[in-house]
Specification:
The structure is a single chain. By secondary structure, the protein is of the alpha+beta class. The protein folds into three domains: 69 residues, 2-Layer Sandwich (Ribosomal Protein S8, Chain: A, domain 1); 76 residues, RRM (RNA recognition motif) domain (Alpha-Beta Plaits); 86 residues, Roll (Structural Genomics Hypothetical 15.5 Kd Protein In mrcA-pckA Intergenic Region, Chain A), CATH 3.10.290.10. Strands 10-15-14-13-11-12 form a six-stranded antiparallel sheet. The protein is globular, with a radius of gyration of 21 Å. The two termini are 35 Å apart.
Length: 249
């Protein structure tokens, strides 16, 4: 069975469980996995699907299926937030923390986002892991750390750090927007797409002529990520104005 089929089959099991018992929740999903599940369950009416990562604009989320007659879910029952502190003179990155967690034998799908907030990091995880991590995560690389609990309602929304630019395109085809966004030739953009290096809304896209919509997320492996923020009017020459935001690397 293909990975996508396994994912959907598991989500179907969760949805069926929720229809009978009220609620069922997956572990943490990648953005691509979440997108696949959202697309598949968009027309199902016996349960509702919510993708939540514990705070606003989280990248890694859990699929929460709820029977509409059952009620609402409580975030505090599905997520734990941990504050990771270290000395001001030390430098600690996302990969350092993730590596330390993997070193403890923790599986990736039990961990949500790891976000830098000023001079500390916040880690989202399954509630049942919070105590274990707090007791055992004492070092990341060569940096000594201290882990403590933090309330979910104290977490800031993830800020999107985008460098905005405006341009015009002959059409809203994927290859045309990529050219304007990343400064590519039409030929190069088409090559990257057909080589399987381009994602649209977290899904691999092999069609250069795919028309894209406002708020679409674009990614080229090795080049970066961007968002089509706004589609404007049409110039006198028949070109469409666009505003894009390129994520910092």
């Amino acid at each position: 069975m293909k990975p996508d089929n396994i994912l959907i089959a598991h989500a179907n099991d969760l949805a069926s469980k929720a229809a009978k018992s009220g609620q069922a929740t997956s572990k943490f999903l990648t953005p691509a996995e979440a997108q696949s599940i959202a697309q598949y369950f968009s027309r199902r009416h016996d349960v509702t699907l919510t993708l939540d990562g514990g705070f606003e604009n989280a990248e890694r989320t859990r699929a929460i299926f709820i029977n509409s007659e059952w009620g609402k879910y409580e975030r505090s029952e599905l997520f734990a937030a941990l504050k990771i502190s270290y000395r001001p003179q030390d430098t600690l990155g996302h990969r350092d923390i993730l590596g330390a967690l993997m070193g403890l034998g923790i599986e990736r799908d039990t961990i949500g986002d790891i976000v830098a907030v000023g001079q500390f990091h916040v880690l989202i995880c399954l509630p049942e892991l919070g105590g274990f991590i707090a007791d055992n995560l004492i070092k990341a690389g060569r940096v000594g750390i201290h882990v403590s609990n933090i309330e979910l309602d104290e977490l800031p929304a993830r800020e999107e750090k985008l460098t905005e630019k405006t341009d015009t395109v002959a059409s809203l085809r994927l290859d045309a927007v990529l050219c304007a966004t990343f400064g590519l030739s039409r030929t190069k953009a088409a090559e990257l797409i057909t080589a399987g290096l381009v994602s649209l809304n977290h899904q691999n896209c092999l069609r250069p002529d795919k028309e894209i919509d406002e708020q679409a997320l674009l990614s080229i492996r090795g080049y970066g990520r961007a968002k089509l923020l706004e589609i404007g009017g049409v110039s006198r020459k028949g070109r469409t104005f666009i505003r894009v935001g390129v994520y910092g690397r």
